[in-house]
Amino acid sequence: MSRILIVEDEEAIAELEKDYLELSGFEVVIEKDGNAALSLGLAEPFDMYILDIMLPGVDGFELCRQFRENSNAPILMVSARKEDIDKIRGLGMGADDYITKPFSPSELVARVKAHLARYDRLIGAMPPKEDVISVRNLRIDRTTHRVWVNGEERMLTAKEYDLLLFLVENPNQVFSKEELFRELWDEDIIGDIATVPVHIKKVREKVEVDPARPQFIETVWGVGYRFKV
Ligand code: CA
């Protein structure tokens, strides 16, 4: 399910947007304060951002700039002021679209659906032969087996790389320890399945910003692991 962050200080508008988006099957988080929105939006992955411009704390322009630096997810700006719209158009700040207040909720939902569909095609259905895979701040070059996080190269062992790549190439699917072991370790060798969580931990230490709260490799309790996109 796509998760959307709405940053809007007018409660009635925020709730209206939330209601309509939830009816369309989206998961919605509302933040009313710009500073709080900035912390949340950088700490957690969202599939789309809907940003009001005039906010207490950091404004929508700055939020847009910072979210864009950290994510390729679509950003929709919301404003009532014509000069804001000109600024969004002119500045190249990375917004994908804008909508002017007042707007109809169904118009908003239509835009959100269109942007998310495009974004899903971009990340979810990456062509299998693509050499470089980018998911948020993670980048993997399949030709050279190199991995970067926030532009900084991370050194993975061959097995750690295989494990990461396998999960990335099968996004959002949950794999048990047994399945991963079968898939990635030599079947002829009598191995210890406990090596799987050990390798997961090592990969997390290398690719997660906070390995204790992984944004990429998620533990699905009692089932296994999945790579979240
Ligand atoms: Ca506002």
Q: Indicate the radius of gyration in whole angstroms.
A: 20 Å
Count of all domains: 2
Helix content: 40-55%
Order of helices and strands: EHEHEHEHEHEEEEHHHEE
CATH architecture of the largest domain: 3-Layer(aba) Sandwich
Strand count, sense and barrel status of the largest sheet are: 5 strands, parallel
Terminus-to-terminus distance: 10 Å
Query: What is the CATH first-level class name of the largest domain?
Result: Alpha Beta
Class by SSE composition: alpha/beta
* Quantity of strands, as a count: 11
Describe the global form: elongated
Task: Write up this protein.
The protein has 229 residues and is of the alpha/beta class. It has 2 domains: 3-123, Rossmann fold (3-Layer(aba) Sandwich); 132-227, Winged helix-like DNA-binding domain superfamily/Winged helix DNA-binding domain (Arc Repressor Mutant, subunit A, Orthogonal Bundle), CATH 1.10.10. 42% of the residues lie in helices and 21% in strands. Strands 2-1-3-4-5 form a 5-stranded parallel beta sheet, sandwiched between helices. A 4-stranded antiparallel beta sheet has the order 6-7-8-9, with no helix packed on it. The mean pLDDT is 90. It binds calcium ion.
Short note summarizing the structure:
The chain has about 230 residues and is α/β, with parallel strands linked by helices.
